[in-house]
Fold each of these.
Amino acid sequence: MSSDAGSGDLRARASRVAAMVQRHWYLLRHSWPRALELVYWPTVQMLMWGFLQAWLSRTTGSAATAAGAFIGGILLWDVLFRGQLGFSITFLEEMWARNLGHLMMTPLRPGEFVASLMVMSVIRVAIGFVPVTLLAIWFFGFNLWTLGLALVAFFANLFLTSWSIGLVVSGLVLRNGLGAENLAWSLIFLLLPLCCVYYPLETLPGWLQAVSLCLAPTYVFEGMRALLLDHAYRADLMLRALALNAIYFTLACAAFSRLFAAARRTGALLQIGE
């Protein structure tokens, strides 16, 4: 009996998560400006930096060697950035619609709500990422998909980092109102110079390398360069990234839970504003 009850509860949880995903999928599918934005900015960024790299490749031999790593860094950074933005924007859609308080009066639990945000993050990234990788093949002859199963490790770590940041941003917006929504676009850019997206770790000063090594994406981008330039898959780097992500994701979940509880206690869920 307890087994049947447990499986029934699991199905109910899954159905609530699926309902939230379906809600946001309908919203995305029936709004072409939303869907276009998912492809537009990644394409512009890839073309701009890709053509710059193509020019550098013709003028310096060393740049030609690193061309694939540079474009690969652009594409993987977009997974990190868009993964976080997809999580945060889906959350903000509920805030802008003043719907969050209503959702929390239903059987939907905060953990299920977060799970739906994670699923939508993956969907939104996929919509923009796949066309951009095909354009990278067309314009620059760079095929990220040739990295094979290594991409699974890269994507998993980058998504975990993006969700950790998204949880913190969402919690801060919950607690402080929509006046904090700019964090959804700005907070992740603190990582850009520190995660060695476009250059190796040794480029940074020694003291800053220590900071960089505390960030999980650093190991992903170092691993990507090792695979493209040295043709060596560094499983050790992926495991270090996974360990850091496990710590940060656990802390982010705890922070979101506390901030959500504080917002519920103070009535902020029903008083959404600046």
Note: Residues 61-96 form the longest helix (36 residues).
Amino acid sequence: MKSKIWTAVLSLVIAFGLWAYVITVDSPETDSNFYNVPVVFEGETILRERGLMLTSDTDMTVTVKLSGKRRDLNSLKSSDIAAVVDLSQVTQAGERIMSYTVSVPGNNLEVISRNPEAITLQVTEWATKEIPLELVYNGRVPEGYYVDKQNATVEHSSVTVTGPKAIINKIEEAQISVDLNGRTETIIEKLRYSLCDADGEPIEDVSTVTTDLGEVLVSVSILPIKDVKLTYTVIPGGGLTEADITVTLDYDTITVVGSPAALAGLDELSLGSFDLGTFTESAQIRVPIKLPEGVTNQTGILEVTVDITIPERETREFTVTNFRSENLPERLTAQIHQKMLTVTLRGLGPVLDRIRPEDITVVVDFTDVEPGVASFAARIEIAGLEEGEDVGAVDTYSVIAGITEA
């Protein structure tokens, strides 16, 4: 019984082996359908040289029926086959119905049929054009911040577009949209752009248009902005105080921008000081505005006109012979070569009438002097004035003195 079973099994194995041999080695002729065979386009360079291009969807496939030995067909995939379209035959724009050749590996297979028999293509004239890149701002930054649009930078100034001539002729600019809503810090980002017509409207169908740029790096500064008051200091002198004069500025404030650190605590800017002892009469002066580092003046005002109106006062000249030294180091001695100095005083007439030359002293400050002969600044002191009697020297004074070792 066992012998019969083994004989049957052996017979089955031998039969299967013979069948496999016939199928794989000595297989008969048969045919098979191959779906999704890719369409390959040749001669695109020649087409481009003629000023033409394809606008059809180039991701096409066909169905091919092949005949041959079973083993050859079984080893073949659709991706191994190609439907080749020769574009060099195209000489003008329009709809073209093109035949194609089926490329099959080896020489043992025959093409029985194809579906479709021909391929319909859309061919159009092509063009290329350089389009300027423009920034378009949307929204607003919060109050207290400034967008420096004038100094915004774009990585490239233009983009080159290539595609159907009819579409390319409509494109006039490439707009980069910058969203400002809620932004309080400088924008440094890569952004995309939209191809637009002369009215700034996006071109709807640009699927057949190619560009030489993807995203573009954009930098737009967003900085704090604030109004800063312009101030000044008045130094009493020449018989005048700040209460006696009128100071008028043509601009009281300016608008500045800068980093948060630069603007922190910056509520006013000083134009400097005005020493009334140096003014002999009313004057109009131009004072430059000096800004801290990192702060920019947005108003464009570089200097301020300051009108100083001085009330009418009398002036008298006095020849002074009283000189006094002060702050002279102990190791040094000073010899003031000048014996007299003409000094101009300003004040009310009745007060000036009471002043005598001997009431006036020229005081020379020798702080930090070194041996030698030099000119030294002097101040004028007036004795005998009562409270409220404002009299002072007009202009600045100096004397020549020699300094020697004690």
Note: The chain has four domains: 29-117, 128-223, 224-309, 314-405.
